[in-house]
TrEMBL record:
Name of the protein in its database record: Putative transporter
Transmembrane found in the keyword field: yes
GO cellular component, one term: membrane
Subcellular location, principal: membrane
Compositional bias (Basic and acidic residues): 152-166
Listed transmembrane segments: 34-59, 66-86, 106-129, 328-348, 368-392, 413-436, 442-464, 476-502
Gene Ontology biological process: transmembrane transport
Cell location: Membrane
One Pfam family in the UniProt entry: Mem_trans
Membrane topology: Multi-pass membrane protein
Amino acid sequence: MTKDISTLVVNALLPCLAFNKIVNYISYKDLKMIGIIVLTSLFIYTLGILGGVLVYFGFKTEPKFFYGLLFCSSCTNISDLTISIMQSEGLQAIFTTEQLGKGVSYAVIFMSVQNFLLMNLGLMTIPYYDVKNDIEKEEKHNETDANSSTSDDQHLTKDITDKNSKADSTFNNDVYDQQTSLSDATIESIDSISTADSDVVDSEEVEAEEIAEHEETFHQRRKRKSSISSVLTRPFTNSGTSHRVDRTTELVKEYSIISKVKSGQFDIKKPLDLYAEHPTENINNNHDENDKESIPEMEEKKNTLSDWCYSHRLGWLYYILINFERPCSIATVLGLLCALVPWLRILFVKQNGYHIHQGPDNAPVLSVFMDFTLYVSQASVPIALLLLGGSIAKIDLDKLDYKFVKAAIVLNLYRLCVMPIIGIAFVNRLVTIGWLDKGDSIGRMSLVMTFAVPSATACLYFTAMFTPVTGPQIQMACLGSVYVVAYLMFFVTFAVVLTYTIKHDLGY
């Protein structure tokens, strides 16, 4: 259910939120702020990677979690937390609705930059390189075993064939001698007995199959009934403690694609499924080669484009372009296009200095789209927070790597304490040099807030995608330690950073 709801959020709720907030609160006057957000995002990712490298070499942590450490230290939770905090009731007592809406639009642009890096540039595959060497070694080992077994099977098959030919000739001679000695009456009696026995056996087999089906149905109903009752009574009783489910392993089983990578069904270098937050299929796996007649003309053109790009060594360009078809990417691009072009923006919202004929209700002609996206987007924040809690709940404390806890504490001290200090100094420097207006309080707070959030929740799913189902699952154990420490510290560190920014820097 978590996987389905997250897909709903990515394909419907977040695109509506992105389009509505960008068109409502962004205009061509904010081009400088968009550039500052892109620059700040790259600076945050650089600081995060630097912290991951220092922790790795300073503590000599698990070598199979090097790329995963860089991944979780660079990606920040700029969609769930920052947007929900911007829409919280506490900030509504300080900032106006216009300011908070603009802050949400800034958070959406931050999210778009991160999605471009992860999806369009393929940085989401970084955790794969922690297990790449093991997969290659296993493939080479399987190839050598297959070659040796093939040669052994050839020799064994030859020996068995020789023995079987000798045995068959001897057996056929004996059978022929015995058959010639039997009388016709004996043969008829044997045939009648065998026919009766076969009828009895057939009836017994049918009855056994019917009994097995009834028993299977009964056990399924009983199992379903017990599972439902256990779910209903687990919060009130201790009956679920004796049969505890390994949540981290279940997460890996659900999202892991390593088996598909080994079998060749999944290609890391090709675009992934466009309609899932945590894609586990390539984009072209939805259509079979023998089903070309059912593919629409646009799909055929797309396949022709992909073939042309890969044949001319431009697969990287196709990878970047095709990811713009993701719902969030389309909504962001269309939102920026409509927001930055005044004669398009006035079709959706009222804009000072420009005039166009209004609709019968004295509203912009296409304001119905703004009403629709606003209505749908209001569900994105509470559902996103529920998914955040559900994702953290999937971390199994018994599976944590406690040797990595010290490194996790240092990494989160750097991310949640040191990086916000750097962020405050960075934002104040932007104000000093005139890049950022001193009166743009919501813009300053949005930038500082992005420095002070923990790792992105999506890192859990992307790491689970590239974690083998069998084995110690070192990557998930280390990442779980990072998240547990991060959210124990986050409530304190973020409150201090937010209070200092509002009281000291903004002067409220």
